[in-house]
Amino acid sequence: MERLEDYNPLLLYVVGLATVYFCYRLLRTDPEAAAPYNVAPPEQVAPGWKGEVLQKLSMKVSGTSLIQCYAPATGESLGRINPSTTDSVDSAIANAAAAQAHWAQTTFAERRKVLKTMLRFVLENQETIARVACIDSGKTMVDASLGEILVTVEKLRWVIAHGEESLRNESRPGNLLMAYKWHEVMWQPLGVVAACVSWNYPFHNLISPVIASIFAGNAIIVKGSENTAWSSTYFASIATSALVACGHSPHIVQSVVCWPDVAEHLTSHPGIAHITFIGSRPVAHHVCASAAKALTPVCVELGGKDPAIVLDDLSNSDFYRVASILMRGVFQSAGQNCIGIERIIALPNVYLGLIDHLTPRIKALRPGSILNASPDDAPIDIGACISDAGFSRLESLIADAVAQGARLVCGGKRYVHPQHPKGHFFAPTFLVDVTTSMKIAQEELFAPVFTLMRADSIDHAIRIANSTPYALGASVYGSSTRDTERVVREVQAGMVAVNDFAVTYMVQLPFGGVKGSGYGRFAGQEGLRSVCNQKAVTRDRWPWLAKTSIPGPMDLPLKGKGAGERAWKMACGVVWVGYGDLRGKVRGIKNLVGL
């Protein structure tokens, strides 16, 4: 039998080191590992919960400033919220500022740990989060999974994986005159930022700006919509509890819910360094005017009238696949989706086929609520709208289109649900033969309305797509790469998906639009950097060898007779040397030598 000392000592040493290292890795705790924590869910998510059905559905409570919260699918009361005041907004900003001073000093590893902690919580509590979102906004569980959970965990994943790289100091090229310097851009925290977000995705819209802002080293004030005030507290606590679990102050994230008069105090506050606004164009005008008082920059993500262009070269299998994508794109969250498909523009060879195929599918859609639903009930295809305030306008737009030659295949009016008569339901609608001259083709609907338009050619389809004031997202479906790429180039939009719908956000490409759909971007590297101070820095490359000094002829005050002419010749010589061609550089050198 071989003895231990017969082995190569170096080999034994290496094996021993490897064993020790393996044990060290095995036993040591990952400093970025997710920390466990818990957030108590609202009582209303418990199976069998039933609330009082309000006789009058309104957020306002007569004689008070309270916000009445209710489930839009059933009319059941969710309780009342005491809204934030100007004083409480001031206090929230002050607390956030104090906490941010310490948070800004944290490392990217410490910030990643917080995001990993949030990610684990979201993954382990998907059903609760989805149910809370469904109760407060009326959507279905599948809508919540796709529009609340999936996109949130993707944003967390992306920032965890790529956030540090996106905010790492970035070297920039110089030039001949600055060859003795090196140059970079730094991405530093702004301080306290704010986000005023819409109600259609109450979890994702609230948490998404939190993820980017805190990773960039900021504190954030998040103002959720009054329409979804009930869920804001629970969703915000997911972020604040993750911070506490990782040993940080919960004041880094502040949630406020208030009426518009107090919201103006927030958006004009000098303590806010940046605002992300998600909402409608009319409200955006007020927000931007308010922010201008403090010269606060605003990222504005508004509505869209997103076109889906269906080319006529689809195979049979692609036709059915695309039809299903269009159904989801239109009816996701009852059409209350900023990048939902609002116009389907089809070429002649597929136009009639879409009508024949989609008519029975749209007629078969079943509106409903997850509240009080049992596994034995028929599945729910489409949820409620957040409010019935826009139903009369919708019915008027549809009637106007029909009067101008459009054909209403089904729907077109509000729907009274037999089990939930107080719910805000609009019948799934299929409207065909729509033209650009109709108001319904120009105005954002934010409703479960499938609007089909006919185009004679690709040229015509692109003209139709570009005919509205909006330009947020777009999609194109076809087999010819040449044709789909032409649409990508020529359609006016901030985002385009080819043979798919809204997937640019699923890989955290920059999100935003042009024209009447807003400006600025969130998501991805561009969004992360937008909530930073982009600081340009130039340093000496070889401080022991070369530093900037002002040459004698240009040193102030100029000295001697003809000093002005000598200074001018030197300045010209420097410019020629730095930017002229070979002859120009020689000319510049002569200017300098001749001084």
Topology record:
Blueprint: H1 9-27, E1 67-70, E2 77-81, H2 86-103, H3 108-124, H4 126-137, H5 141-167, E3 170-172, E4 181-189, E5 192-196, H6 204-215, E6 219-223, H7 229-245, E7 253-256, H8 260-267, E8 275-278, H9 281-292, E9 298-301, E10 307-310, H10 316-331, E11 343-346, H11 348-363, H12 391-403, E12 407-410, E13 414-415, E14 425-426, E15 429-434, E16 449-454, H13 458-465, E17 470-471, E18 473-477, H14 481-490, E19 495-498, E20 514-515, E21 518-519, H15 524-530, E22 532-540, H16 563-579, H17 582-593
Parallel strand pairs: 5-6, 5-8, 6-7, 8-9, 10-11, 10-18, 11-16, 15-16, 18-19
Antiparallel strand pairs: 1-2, 3-4, 4-22, 9-21, 12-15, 13-14, 17-20
Helix pairs in contact: 3-5, 3-7, 4-5, 4-7, 5-6, 5-15, 10-11, 16-17
Describe the structure in your own words:
- The protein has helices spanning 9-27, 86-103, 108-124, 126-137, 141-167, 204-215, 229-245, 260-267, 281-292, 316-331, 348-363, 391-403, 458-465, 481-490, 524-530, 563-579, 582-593, and strands at 67-70, 77-81, 170-172, 181-189, 192-196, 219-223, 253-256, 275-278, 298-301, 307-310, 343-346, 407-410, 414-415, 425-426, 429-434, 449-454, 470-471, 473-477, 495-498, 514-515, 518-519, 532-540.
- Strands 12-15-16-11-10-18-19 form a 7-stranded mixed β-sheet, with helices on both faces. A 6-stranded mixed β-sheet has the order 7-6-5-8-9-21, with helices on both faces.
- It starts with 8 loop residues before the first helix and ends with a helix.
- 41% of the residues lie in helices and 16% in strands.
- It is globular, with a radius of gyration of 30 Å.
- Residues 1-7 and 23-27 have low confidence and may be disordered.
- The protein has 17 helices and 22 strands.
- By secondary structure, the protein is α/β, with parallel strands linked by helices.
